[in-house]
Amino acid sequence: MTGARIFVAIVFVLLGAAFIASTALLFYEFQRMEWFALVATHSYLFFFFPVLGILALVAFYLPSVIFTDLYWHHLRYGKLRYALGVVVVAAAAIGFAKYLDKPPRSIWEATPAALQADRGDQASRRVPILEAMADVREKSQSRIGLSSLSLSTQPNRAADGFRIGPWS
Fold first, then answer.
1. Within 10 Å of residue 65's Cβ, how many Cβ atoms?
2. What's the whole-model pTM score?
3. Terminus of the chain with fewer CB atoms < 10 Å: N or C?
């Protein structure tokens, strides 16, 4: 199974690099700006997707090696079926990517110069995008206590001495 291990390792390393590439490119392109605000605001895409994607690759490495070896060495027309399966899955992935690639566009698709040139719109009261991102980051780092919303834990006693409950 050495050949299957090497083949799957190469494919998974390329997939892992693709997971990391989006975050690395964002950092490279926006390094002179608030790149961390973009990562934090869109953490589902630039942090969690790469981390969970790489964890999934680690989890599926051994089953993929077994599956590849099974098709490559033990099934009739396995190499052909495996190759056709790869082509079908790749075509489906490309089709799904094309389906998702439509407006509205995302903020990270704008150039840093365009974001810096944004002055907002006074008529609609829209603030500049970078100012809004900085405000979201600032607000998320401040502490807001929930103690004012908690129930009282002191027992309430009615005139006859019976406890009514902490909520009354």
1. 20
2. 0.67
3. C
